[in-house]
């Protein structure tokens, strides 16, 4: 079992107070969101995290998932595990399906069977990217690539097994791990100018903000599908400019088209999600993306 700082293994001796803590199984705990969830709950006296990544709990293995859930009897499972390499998903769609769809299904079965809540994370890539106004939760989906198809199948499995679940679609996520912000900071070390696409728009979302939203929803019975991204939107080129500005870098952004960039996989041009269900049903507000990236950089560059 994977142990991150401040988190106890269920096998370790627990005192009476700890016994009463609600257990949260976190899958994919080494990923960006998994780490942010750990930060969110650090020092919690109510929840005890049981951190797992593929080495400890392979979500594609239904028997392993069921046995683990039966042993832990969690209050909730927070599924931070996924196959997120968009290009590789095209070449390995079966593997992506096993992790993004079958994995979600297995966790959903285990959550239903043990009476646990399930938090599952999905993506803006379930949409076709041809929108002209921010997508809301009830808009028709139409994934254009393997990543989006497998993530949508995962959502559908979670709905199909009918347990108490929250599905949160997020986008342009960055946290502890490899991401666009880190790539830009690395390029700024060696380049005076970087070429970044201007014709894809979305809402950069910090994993910390998403973890805060998860912690908000988790104790509630406000189940269902949510869009969960930082407020505001920009193109990748504008995002890069803001990163350089905040980090005090002189690097110039040359804003180019996706065609000029020539990526192997077509990405949605329009990826803006409206957090409509959060706004309709809660008083939770995501931070504006400028503020969230500023907070993130203060932490990262410290
Ligand atoms: N990153 C984004 O821009 C973005 C955008 C929209 C939505 N999302 C969604 O947000 C969620 C969190 O993304 P993230 O960026 O935090 O992902 P991430 O950093 O790629 O982390 C995913 C974690 O899952 C693990 N994993 C892979 N296969 C597994 C398996 N079979 N069993 C258990 N764990 C497994 C990975 O381990 P390895 O590294 O060893 O494979 C990794 O530690 C995902 O659902 C993702 O689809 C992400």
The rough form would be described as: globular
Provide the residue-averaged pLDDT.
94
Could you state the order of secondary-structure elements as H and E? HEHEHEHHEHEEHEEEHEEHEHHH
How many extended strands? 12
End-to-end distance, in Å? 31 Å
Which homologous superfamily in CATH is the superfamily? NAD(P)-binding Rossmann-like Domain
Structural class: alpha/beta
The major sheet is characterized as: 6 strands, parallel
Brief summary:
It is built from twelve helices and twelve strands. The protein is α/β, with parallel strands linked by helices and 302 residues long.
Characterise the protein shown here.
With 302 residues, the protein is an alpha/beta fold. It has one domain: 3-Layer(aba) Sandwich (Rossmann fold), CATH 3.40.50. The protein has helices spanning 16-19, 32-41, 62-72, 86-91, 93-114, 146-160, 180-190, 207-217, 236-247, 258-261, 276-281, 289-300, and strands at 22-27, 47-51, 76-79, 117-123, 165-170, 173-174, 193-197, 201-202, 205-206, 224-227, 234-235, 252-256. It has a six-stranded parallel β-sheet, with helices on both faces. A two-stranded parallel sheet has the order 6-9. It has a two-stranded parallel ribbon with strand order 7-12. Strand 4, helix 6 and strand 5 form a beta-alpha-beta unit. Helix 2 (32-41) crosses helix 8 (207-217) and helix 9 (236-247) crosses helix 12. The radius of gyration is 19 Å and the shape is globular. The structure holds NADP nicotinamide-adenine-dinucleotide phosphate. NADP nicotinamide-adenine-dinucleotide phosphate (NAP) binds next to helix 2, helix 5 and strand 4.
């Amino acid at each position: 079992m994977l142990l991150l700082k401040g988190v106890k293994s269920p096998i370790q001796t627990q005192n009476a107070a700890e016994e009463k803590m609600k257990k949260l199984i976190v899958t994919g705990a080494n990923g960006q969101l998994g780490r942010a969830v750990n930060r969110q709950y650090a020092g919690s006296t109510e929840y005890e995290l049981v951190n797992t990544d593929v080495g400890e709990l392979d979500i594609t293995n239904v028997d392993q998932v069921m046995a683990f859930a039966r042993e832990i009897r969690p209050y909730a499972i927070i599924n931070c595990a996924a196959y997120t390499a968009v290009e590789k998903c095209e070449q390995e769609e079966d593997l992506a399906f096993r992790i993004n769809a079958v994995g979600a299904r297995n966790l959903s079965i285990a959550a239903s069977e043990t009476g646990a809540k399930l938090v599952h994370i999905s993506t803006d890539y379930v949409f076709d990217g041809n929108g002209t106004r921010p997508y809301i939760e009830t808009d028709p989906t139409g994934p254009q690539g393997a990543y989006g198809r497998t993530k949508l199948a995962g959502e559908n499995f979670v709905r199909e097994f009918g347990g108490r679940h929250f599905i949160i679609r997020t986008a342009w996520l960055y946290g502890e791990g490899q991401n666009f912000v880190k790539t830009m900071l690395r390029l700024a070390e060696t380049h005076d100018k970087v070429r970044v696409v201007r014709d894809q728009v979305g809402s950069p979302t910090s994993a910390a903000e998403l973890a805060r939203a998860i912690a908000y929803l988790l104790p509630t019975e406000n189940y269902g599908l949510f869009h969960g991204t930082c407020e505001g939107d920009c193109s990748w080129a504008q995002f890069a400019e803001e990163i350089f500005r905040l980090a005090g870098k002189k690097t110039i952004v040359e804003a180019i088209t996706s065609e000029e960039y020539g990526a192997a996989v077509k990405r949605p041009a329009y990826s803006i999600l409206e957090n409509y269900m959060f706004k309709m049903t809660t008083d939770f507000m995501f931070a504006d993306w400028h503020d969230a990236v500023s907070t993130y950089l203060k932490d990262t560059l410290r």
